[in-house]
């Protein structure tokens, strides 16, 4: 198949119009129509139903999925080739607790390895590395499109291993959780707290169907969710006021200073933290950043 014809068909399929596709591609309408017709002859199948608003035929639906993938790879190749000429700032994405604990330390190590003096290291990190927050699916998608050069994601360690289309996954560490209690809580006298001791407590968590909820269910009770929040600062304030308890990932423990933090007695939840890198061309510092993350992660594993 001629890739140009495939991409021309893609434009028609998305625009549902030969004339609109021609304008988008800066071609004439007859040229677009001829390319699609030639592609259909080559494949021996109709791709578009011209009598019903240019709807896709079954063959057209199959080819469009491949055409979209081809267009995405061409766009990624164009971005990566442009970056070879003038390497851009290293763009790293991460979920909040990794962005607070792992990534800054890794960036500082990159500066140290480059021989930057401590006084210039922070400014160099901010000037040469862009840090962005996001959810794991969002970050994986942005790595795949070339918008980020490296990202950190996570998943519940008890679930089936998650892979992301178009990116490479590298496991970094397995993280455990701590119980976060209000100051002076009756259970704070314990060195470690069984989850069953929290069955009657009110909870704050990102949702009622996440890793924390599954850990409570595994311990034999349903979490009594009194507030839904993804903001660590808000969560700390609610707990400090004595209104709830929660489980805190070790990477985010520093953000819960002033609370009673205790290990979980017995089996508690765990999550796998991993890096995501694009397939194909990579930023010159991407592997160095990965090495720095491995060194920093050894303190948390």
Q: CATH top level of the largest domain?
A: Alpha Beta
Structural class: alpha/beta
Can you name the CATH architecture of the largest domain?
A: 3-Layer(aba) Sandwich
Number of domains: 2
In the CATH hierarchy, the third-tier topology of the largest domain is known as D-Maltodextrin-Binding Protein, domain 2
Overall average residue pLDDT: 88
Largest sheet: 7 strands, mixed
Percent of residues in helices: 40-55%
Secondary structure: number of strands = 11
One letter per element, helices H and strands E, the order comes to HHHEEHEHHHEHEEEHEHEEEH
Distance between the termini: 49 Å
Overall geometry comes to elongated
Radius of gyration: 25 Å
Residue runs with pLDDT of under 50 for 5 or more positions: 118-127
Outline the structure in words.
It comes from Solirubrobacter phytolaccae. Belongs to the LysR transcriptional regulatory family. This is LysR family transcriptional regulator. Keywords: DNA-binding, Transcription, Transcription regulation. InterPro entries: LysR_HTH_N (IPR000847), LysR_subst-bd (IPR005119), WH-like_DNA-bd_sf (IPR036388), WH_DNA-bd_sf (IPR036390). It is a single chain. With 301 residues, the protein is an alpha/beta fold. The protein folds into two domains: 3-85, Orthogonal Bundle (Arc Repressor Mutant, subunit A), CATH 1.10.10; 89-301, D-Maltodextrin-Binding Protein, domain 2. The protein is 43% helix and 21% strand. It has helices spanning 3-15, 18-25, 29-43, 58-85, 96-101, 103-113, 118-128, 136-144, 211-218, 232-240, 286-297; strands spanning 48-49, 55-56, 90-94, 129-133, 150-156, 167-181, 202-205, 224-228, 246-249, 260-263, 270-278. The strands form three sheets. Strands 3, 4, 5, 6, 9, 10 and 11 form a seven-stranded mixed sheet that branches. Strand 1 (48-49) and strand 2 form a beta hairpin. Helix 1 packs across helix 3, helix 6 packs across helix 7 and helix 6 (103-113) crosses helix 11. The longest helix is centred in the first third of the chain and has 28 residues, at 58-85. The radius of gyration is 25 Å and the shape is elongated. The relative contact order is 0.14. Residues 118-127 have low confidence and may be disordered.
């Amino acid at each position: 198949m001629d890739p140009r014809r495939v991409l021309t068909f893609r434009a028609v399929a998305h625009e549902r119009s030969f004339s609109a596709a021609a304008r988008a591609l800066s071609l004439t309408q007859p040229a677009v129509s001829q390319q699609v017709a030639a592609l259909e002859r080559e494949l021996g199948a109709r791709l578009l139903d011209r009598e019903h608003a240019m709807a896709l035929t079954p063959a057209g639906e199959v080819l469009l999925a491949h055409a979209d993938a081809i267009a995405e790879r061409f766009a990624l190749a164009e971005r990566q080739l442009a970056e070879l000429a003038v390497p851009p700032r290293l763009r790293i994405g991460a979920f909040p607790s990794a962005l607070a604990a792992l990534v800054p330390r890794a960036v500082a190590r990159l500066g140290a390895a480059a021989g930057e003096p401590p006084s210039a290291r922070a400014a160099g990190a901010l000037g040469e590395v862009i840090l962005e927050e996001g959810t794991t699916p969002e970050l994986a998608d942005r790595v795949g499109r070339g918008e980020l050069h490296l990202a950190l994601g996570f998943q519940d360690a008890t679930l089936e291993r998650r892979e992301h289309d178009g990116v490479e996954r590298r496991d970094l560490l397995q993280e455990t959780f701590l119980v976060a209690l209000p100051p002076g809580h009756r259970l704070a006298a314990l060195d470690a707290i069984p989850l069953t001791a929290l069955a009657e407590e009110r909870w704050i968590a990102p949702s009622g169907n996440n890793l924390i909820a599954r850990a409570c269910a595994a311990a034999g009770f349903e979490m009594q969710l009194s507030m839904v929040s993804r903001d660590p600062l808000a969560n700390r304030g609610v707990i400090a006021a004595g209104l709830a308890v929660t489980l805190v990932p070790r990477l985010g423990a520093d953000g819960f200073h002033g609370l009673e933090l205790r290990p979980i007695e017995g089996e508690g939840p765990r999550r796998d933290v991993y890096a995501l890198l694009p397939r194909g061309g990579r930023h010159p510092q991407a592997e160095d950043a990965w090495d720095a993350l491995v060194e920093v992660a050894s303190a948390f594993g």
